[in-house]
Amino acid sequence: MSPLSAMVWQRLTGLMPGELNQGELSWLATPHRHLSLLARRRATLIVNRVRLFAFLFAVLTPMWSVVDFIVFPFPLWRELALMRFAACAAFASLLVYYRSNGDLFNAYRAMALLFAIPTVFYVASHTLLTYYELTGMSAAIGAGYAFLPFVLLAGLSIFPLTLVESLVVASPILICQAVSGYLRWAAMDWPSFAGAFWLLVLITGVAALAGLCQLAFMIALVRQAIRDPLTGAFSRSSGTEIIDLHFTLARRANAPFAVAFLDLDHFKRINDQFGHEAGDRALITMTESVSRQLRHGDVLARWGGEEFLLIMPGTTIEQAETAIERVRKAGFGERPEGGRVTASIGIAESRADRASDWKDLVELADQRMYRAKQEGRDRVVSREPAEAAAISA
After folding, report:
1. DSSP readout, 89-123?
2. Alpha-carbon torsion (32, 33, 36, 38), positive or negative
3. Contact (Cβ atoms closer than 8 angstroms) between residue 165 and residue 32
4. Does residue 5 fall inside a structural domain?
5. 369 in a domain, yes or no?
6. How many angstroms separate the CA atoms of 270 and 242, rounded?
7. How far apart are CA 100 and CA 44, in angstroms?
């Protein structure tokens, strides 16, 4: 790390103590490197916030018709009331019928619909109001319609968005505001327009910062929830969610999907002879060593005690054997009494082993891991005995 980036990182961690580690800082800028579990939880939260926003607008939008009725002439009130009840129906539909499926693009679509409804209402109402010469209180209330873009941009602050996402959502509103000013070039009060546009930009910046703070806090919470506190590997509950997701995706695409069950050999001796602290150090060292050898997309989960599950999406049985051999060659650390830590490993692959679900796949890898122990430990079993004999022959 360069001195400049180190200084920037130090300043940022001082502003957000204990929330993010250095590898997660880029997650605030773009969602492309987010973990699948974080993406699913964030997608669900975004859709829930969209529905909350839709509920608020569905209630408040028609209520304002009472104010319009008092200050506007009847023809104008009637047109605005029809627009308001159409917007109310759209918000209510979004609230009632839209549900999260854990997909981020589904969440993006929900946000697009949420912001499209008031934007269309704003354009239609603004166009309608230009045909009326309003004075006094009517002019003041009519001018209030111009503040809808400010409300929309301020609403960004309730969503845990990355910087890129915030800019993508806010840009159409800012561009439309700039275009509307350009179209009214001749009659434009430029000082007033420039001040209003600058205020929109400031609100966008504050809302984006609020979204980033929410996202940073969410990343920290998700990390704590999905990681094993001792080793830093994924916990069993999060590993279960990950393997369920990837098994489903692999089945839909008819793609390979492999898992490997790793169990440290004679681990109980370390705890009995040298204490649990030595055992903990061995588990941490083993996790760090394996993690350094993981390919992009591979996931290591602590399944329980000294048992770990390596999840390998898009991996055939042959590729899994090669990957596991690379992991074994790198080693799992040193034993307290001397010598290297070894592991018994079982591999299973969804297509080759015709697994009906992920539980069967994990169970098969577990059985092969026990076969590896019975056959002398410090080895890999990835095929049934008859299949292995046929290959060797």
Report:
1. HHHHHHHHH----S-HHHHHHHHHHHHHHHHHHHH
2. negative
3. no
4. no
5. yes
6. 31
7. 5
Both structure tokens of 319: 């590729």
**Residue among 389, 353, 351, 358 at smallest CA distance from 368:** 353
Give me 261's structure tokens. 């069950």
141 and 204 inside one domain: yes
Same domain, 282 and 344: yes
CA angle centred on 208, ends 202 and 214, rounded to 5°: 140
Dihedral sign, Cα of residue 209, residue 211, residue 214, residue 215: negative
User: Which tens digit of pLDDT belongs to each residue from 352-378?
Assistant: 999 999 999 999 999 999 999 999 999
CA atoms of 188 and 167, how far apart (whole Å): 27
Of the residues 196, 226, 256, which one is the last residue of a structural domain? 226
The CA distance from 316 to 256, in Å, is 5
pLDDT at 135: 86
DSSP β-ladder status, 343-349 and 299-304: unpaired
Backbone dihedral angles phi then psi of residue 232, each to the nearest 5 degrees: 85, -5
**How many domains does the chain fold into?**
2
Dihedrals phi, psi of 359, to nearest 5 degrees: -65, -40
Give the pLDDT mean for 257-269.
95
Is pTM beyond 0.70? Reply is yes
Whole-number pLDDT of residue 296: 83
Each as own residue / partner, the long-range contacts of residues 196-202 (CB below 8 Å, 24 or more positions apart, any chain) are 196/146, 199/150, 200/149, 200/150, 200/153, 200/173, 200/174, 201/174
- Sheet containing strand 307-313, edge to edge, reads 299-304, 307-313, 257-264, 343-349, 380-381
Instruction: Tell me what pLDDT residue 393 has.
Output: 46
151, containing H or E segment:
helix 148-155
Whether the predicted pLDDT of 173 surpasses 90: no
Distance of CA 262 to the CA centre of its chain: 28
Q: Residue 347: what pLDDT? A: 97
Task: Give the whole-angstrom CA distance, residue 150 versus residue 207.
Answer: 11
Comparing C-alpha atoms, which of 169, 87, 154 is closest to residue 122? 87
> For residue 304, what are the β-bridge partners?
307
pLDDT digits (tens, 9 = 90+) for 70-84: 999 999 999 999 999
**pLDDT, average across residues 12-41:** 75
Residue 182 has pLDDT above 60, yes or no: yes
pLDDT digits 0-9 by tens, 189-220: 677 778 888 999 999 999 999 999 899 889 88
- In this structure, the answer to whether residues 59 and 107 fall within a common structural domain is yes
